Amino acid sequence: MSLKPSTLAAPLVFALLALAPLVLDDWRLGELSQFLAYGILAMSLALIWGQAGLLCFGQAVFFGLGAYAMSLVTLGMVPGLTAVTSTWAGLAAAMAVPAVAANVVGRFLFYGRGLRGAYFGIATLAIAVVVERLFINWGFVGGLNGLMNVPPLDLGLAGWSFELWEPVPLYAAMLAAAALVWLGLEAVVRSPFGSVLRAISGSEERTAAFGYDTAGTKLSAFTLSAAVAGFAGALFSAQFAFVSPPLIGFALSTEALIWVAVGGRGALIAAFLGAILVKSAEARLSEALGASWLLALGLLFVACVVLLPRGVVGEVLAKLDGWWGKGRKDG
Amino acid sequence: MLFAALDGLNYVLVIALVAMGLVVVFGLMNVINMAHGELFLLGAYTLSITEMLGGSFWLGLILAPLLLAVVGLAIEELVVRHVYHRFLDTILATWGLSIAIKQAVVLAFGPQSRTASPPFDFAVEIFGAPYPAYRLFVMAVSVAVIAGTFLLFFRTRFGLTARAVIANRRMASCLGIDTRRLDRLTFAFGAALAGLAGAVMAPLMSVDPQMGLGFLVPAFLAILVGGTGHLAGVLAGSVLVGGTDTVIARLWSPVVAQIVVFTLAIVVIRLFPRGVVGGRERR
To answer: Do residue B95 and residue A254 have CB atoms under 8 angstroms apart?
Structure first.
């Protein structure tokens, strides 16, 4: 693997983000911490969409399941397990519940004749609508009001407690989590498993003809992606101290698609930056532009899909790689 | 009981009306138009605003499909044309359009709901009980549009060329059929159907920027359940989706009905990927 600008992009991005506490005030830093959770969600979507070509219209279902699982555990609301309220147990549940859900749904959708392409997209869209409805009407998780007073992240173990209240430690923990997720997923993308995913995206029949278990590969990727999305949801709920049905539904799912399309579906770091850039722009511009912001975002999304299929960040990275390669050849 | 059956039939026919525009575009162009719900919305607003400006219901009903055909042409030319060869991206591009159109409507006319009044609001006696005549009119329009679409596709020269393109696009274009022109016309036709559906439904529902989505998902599920290989699949799918919804909504509640119908639809789509009517498999 040659050293290309796109390889250096991710370490550079995380290094720059690590400097953010020096320049941002507490409010902005708290906001950026939440955007990091969205960034992790975007990376989970980029894994299945950008790599395996599975257009998922319900990624927020897994984000929301993670957020609810985390909240129920840390609030001590799980029947029979009310004493277990540690952050670690919450995070474990927040990854396990969406992973199991995705595995069950994936088993049904991928095997046999399986649903592909648009059919998979529409099915996940319908699932997102159904799950949101269910949570709105489910009294145990607070219905439309959701769950309030979700405890903050507590990194303590065995009686020792270290709650992340202050913006800077919280931000550091979130950034570390995002960097870890990126490292892990990038390793998956660069592994032979990642190559099979891209092969499936290119042509599922051909990949199957080469003897790969395409349904099983898609299922593993879908399950992993759901666990990562759940992790992001857990981190988000603990910071936000509040979960409600909009976190699990179809609106956030679509937002995630926009981040990934605008950033770039082909590279994890591009999707991650897409989420952070779009959310930051929204925070700055939505007051100035009001309702026009969503119109502008919709049009930007269309423009990216039509003109820049690699996304804004992805396109920049590809251009940089191109110049770099040319420069080295010339020199 | 009779009214429940009539209301159910009404719902089935409206879904079929919305789904007809979708399936024409999907079948012919292999484009999933996620902005269809917003075209429906624009049709309803056209009627509501025509009435507000003093025009009659009938003027609005004629204006809506015409205006939407123009909007459809513009969308095809500016967006859809560029992503034909990237199938999944057509979903995303039209989805982005749906967000933009919805928000443009909010900006132009505000988020609050508007009203549209029916041209007549008397009731007719059916087996001794009153039933709103306008609902019967909506059903009649739906039946007429569905019949018209079938005639167009199976009894006219345009339908013949269109079916040739569906069967084998490259061969059709080799035989001298202008597929670009046909794509434009088809998309405009699909948009006009959405506009007509929106206009005719406007007096029966609250006309607000969110009204499109409520019909888009059931219409999609109806198409996939029924199968995209044949226009008749739309009817079968609409009957299954709309009928189940009505029955369960009556027995339990509309919320339960939506959850059950969507879940069942996913199961049916998974078990019968070609739809219950079958037909040639499309990607």
So the answer is: yes
